[in-house]
Records
---
Amino acid sequence: MNASAADSGAAGAVASPRVGLFVTCLANIYRPNVGLAAVALLEKAGCTVEVPMTQTCCGQPSYNNGDLDGAAKTARQTIEAFEDFDYVVAPSGSCGGMLRDFPRLFASEPGWQHRAQALADKTYELISFLTDIRGMTSVDAAYPHRVTYHDSCHGLRALGIKEQPRRLLATVRGLELAELADSEICCGFGGTFCVKYPEISGRMVADKAGAINATEAEVLLGGDLGCLLNIAGRFGREGGRVRVYHVAEVLAGMADVPGLGDPRQPKGGS
Amino acid sequence: MEPLSHAFKERSVWALQDETLQVALNRAKDGFAVKRAKAVDALPEFEALRDRAVAIKNHTLENLDHYLERYADAVERSGGKVHWASSAEDARRIVVDICRASGARMITKGKSMVGEEVGVNGALEEAGFEVVETDLGEYIIQLAHEPPSHIIVPAVHKTRGQIAELFHQNHEKYGLTRKLAEVPEMVNEARQVLRDKYLAADVGITGANFLIAESGTSVIVTNEGNGDLTCSLPKVHIVTAGIEKVVPSAEDASTLLRLLGRSATGQDMTTYTTFTTGPKRPGDTDGPEEYHVVLIDNGRTTMLGDQFREMLRCIRCGACMNHCPVYGAIGGHAYGWVYPGPMGSVLTPLAVGLKEAGNLPNACTLNGHCAEVCPVRIPLPDLLRTLRHREYQLRLGLKPMRWGLAAWVWFTTHPRIYRLGTRVQARMLALLAGRKGRFRRMPLAGSWFRGGRDLPAPQGETFMAVWQRRQRGRK
């Protein structure tokens, strides 16, 4: 445990806030380890973490495909599940950013818009919440590997997440961060984009994999599982040797499981 | 120009497979983004300028009728003539009529995207005029009989070798028979050919980057000086411009000029910035005898009144496409009409309809890079999403996608079933993948794999299931 993390909370931070973890569909289905890592980090930061069982999806599939009524239905579900918490935290800039966009869905429903705004105002992406709100400056983890970091677009541009994960990664023992050329260029995932325009998406992720290979990193980290599944899928197809993890898994010292798309029983482990 | 946007999917796949095009795109890829970043970093007030530009544009659009009238009055006062074209057909007819009335045979053109939009060249050629593009990039694609693939570098999709070949084929008739290899040689040869055209031209047609309401002045920026020669040598000068180009004052134009060059090519200023006001006055040493401005609506007033008004702030710098990873992968021709990239993906469906161009707003990852660099802060991803909403409301999208979305919404509003369903899915996929930990193929999910990637398998349990067990253990 890193006691300093909880103690050095930002000015005005609630002593032990109740945080609702919005785990996201992809972490729930593909990577429960990311949810567990998020819980561990939040608890280290002095939060009481709860996981409402009535949570589902952030509604982006509907929102980004033009079905705004559908997105509003899903959003109501999320608002009801989370509005009683001090904070809502998601291990994803994309889904977290969507929750921040909820008020737009209720332009003609003032009651719901008010509730959506209240939710948006207390919703954060995991890593920026830990650093910017809880004042976490270091983690207690070791990861003796050369890693590189992909800035997922929604976290980067909608939520301003860039330095926060790097600051925490710098305190991981043995970790060497090699910056990725074009780290701010989209990997080609884009939600349903990747299956609507697979050829274009495929070119983009191939370019991204090439840039990652050029860093000679052993591991790729990022803050959004959509992008990471896409990139890990590409490495799988290429037979690449780069392993892929969510940044929370490394920060929580929980990257001792196979990476995304790696064989179930790793030879020799990591 | 007949839109080909309905074939976006096929055209984008061809583009990805076109090796020559990929060479050209890769060469261009980072150049503009890097140059822009340098220029922006060197100007501390860049963000403040953007705010100022947004305010100028918004104010002008709110009072567009007023400023257009002021502009038109000022043009008439300076001896010019203003023509109002509500549609592309109107614009073509007006330009052809002016050229006919002046007894012209040869017409030179400076680069004009609105000219491409309304199809000026085709109409003039049909009417029997010889039309010569004088911007080097436009000249190249005119020789190749192709539309522009970028709004500021129209021939960006061409390699040096292709251009050398085009010149070789087309310049023989001028006695220029040597096959060239170096860029300066090619530029010189084009200059030599174009010089004679400038001198022989009866009418010069240019676009406008800005129209200044207070003085009736039109402003164009170029790096080749071709604009100056096009508007001052022939005896008739025609300016074609969209109605959104008007700004109140010269000072406003200069604010926007400071953003335009930096956003487009990373230049503080383009090599030439040309201001023209009316025809030659008594005592002037040069200039045209007639000065016409064709103000083109072609759907712009409709945009002014709906959710797409912000698009009218666009100053056509091309920064959005220079930073768009989709444009970077497929180039401009795949979009199938005049304007490519993010701004084109908004404008094209509005101009030619969502039925024709529904793919364009969808072919975007909503990564937001375009909005980040747009000098006039147009929320391009939001506008693209609004177009997707319109498409959904009009029931134009693919039916399976619609059904899938409806099913997903139902699923997400029934949390118990969602938990059970995701649990089954995670368990099943993990079992099927076995120890390999990923899929190389999967029925019904072919599209994912067509992107040249495997699908990582889930760990096996859902997070919700793990959490529930953990909570039970704690009690």
---
Amino acid sequence: MTLSVDIRHRQGAFDLEAAFESGGRLTALFGTSGSGKTTLVNLVAGLLRPAEGRIAIDGRVLVDTAAGIVVPAHRRRIGYVFQDARLFPHLTVGQNLRYGRFFTPPGERYADEAGVVDLLGIGHLLDRRPGHLSGGEKQRVAIGRALIASPLLILMDEPLASLDDARKGEILPYIERLRDETRIPVVYVSHSIAEVSRLATDVVVLSGGRVRAAGPAAEVLSRPDALPTGERDETGALVDLEIASQDDAFGLTVLRSSAGEWRLPRIDRPVGTKVRARIRARDVMIMTQAPVGISALNVLAARVEHVTSGEGADALVTLRCGTDRLLARITRRSIHALDLAAGREVYTVVKSVTFDGGNPAHAAPRVTALE
Amino acid sequence: MGWLELGPDEWNAVRLSLRVSLWATIASLPLGILVAWVLARKSFWGKSILNGIVHLPLILPPVVTGYLLLLTFGRRGPAGAFLESCCGIVFSFRWTGAALACAVMAFPLMVRAIRLSIEAVDRRLEAAAGTLGAHPAWVFATITLPLILPGIVAGMILAFAKAMGEFGATITFVSNIPGETQTLPSAIYTFTQVPGGDVGALRLTLVSIAIAMAALVASEVLARRISRRMDIE
């Protein structure tokens, strides 16, 4: 599935001008509030009509103002999970779930109702009224309602924003299953770097109504200029790891990446499980020589790819480790002292690793790498 | 307690009033919902004029409304003559005319109640239904209409009560013919005009009070049942 958007829209003083194309299983629209994320999904859903532009899914044109085409929302077959579930209060959960199915042409009803109910764990709620559900349950029913309508694409507008952390943790695995087990592409709006790096395969960064960056998640999230100013501290790289073995004697798990082996506190998952780690730039140290007699376990050889420094005290170093990319935030003074420049061979020490990448075995997502 | 027994003419008046009021309420309901929806949702040139016309019977003296109805829907009136020639519907000096007069007088109350409930509907729910594939007409039938049901019930009860009590416009438009256009208020009025009619007037007054109370209780029960069904927090 490819979603292509190229639109200009004006709403009061706010001006949105966005063009991007994404073919990911889960494309995150990432940005601070007021960056135009919700306006953009409303345009895709057909709840708003753009001043001009074109929106298409796999060549199926939804909007083309030049050709005078604007498909009304109810004929787009795009599921929408709103921030505030928006369940119909006069219908039971079961009736809410089946609402969209009724309007889907019989030949195009691919959704398996029982399977969706099972996927979301809402079987025990079917006879209840939405008024009696918790926030997390409402949101799961809302996701189910969108799925059972057999949509061609699902939009999720900050579906977790109104929930507390415990409820978020309750729903995130379902969204991961939705991403991995169904063939419906998802567009996911969020301002949370943790959610985006955990869920997204592709990221579109919006800021002030403009697209700042778009592309595969690992690539976009490691670009320092892509993150909103408030999230700069969270700048980091995504690294895909695979559990290689369990070191029972020391209570460690050995993980494999393209750059070498990582040793982290024990992760209770079977060997071969793939996990995604986010390594924040401020948790990475750089050495020009192989460290000797160091307590840190995760030392990797790397090559400096790029150094970005501005006026401030900090600089950001992009490193290449195998096929992965790491970011290190160090002081400008250290850059100068170590004479770091593109092409230089160095060693990196990773101080801590964040598992946004869906490892339910870990209640606390951030793992401090062992020394 | 023999004085409480209603005579045949009095029974006629009670039955006629119920029939007139029910017809006035039910027949004007679709138009009432439509007008309330247009006033709540649409903006167009002349909206305040439409709003004024709908509310006019509320502020005009009922006799004036009745006289205007006589001019328009009387046998020689433009609308009256047309309806008689095309569909055989006659309003003047018939119970149907009483129903028309009651419907017109009760219309602003009905529209007001329904309009308020339409304005209270969360339009984001309608948008959600749209994204699930529902055509706007389906959205109205499956989402909006059920959500405004309490307002519709309230509007119907108000309209029914107003119709039961309508006097001025009815008597001006269709007169006071026993068995045809003599509704409860007209019958009470007639009793008060004849010597010794006090007991009859009192009997019909008690009947009026009983019907009004019954309607009120019914609306309460209905509204509670609907809101319990919806579990609106």
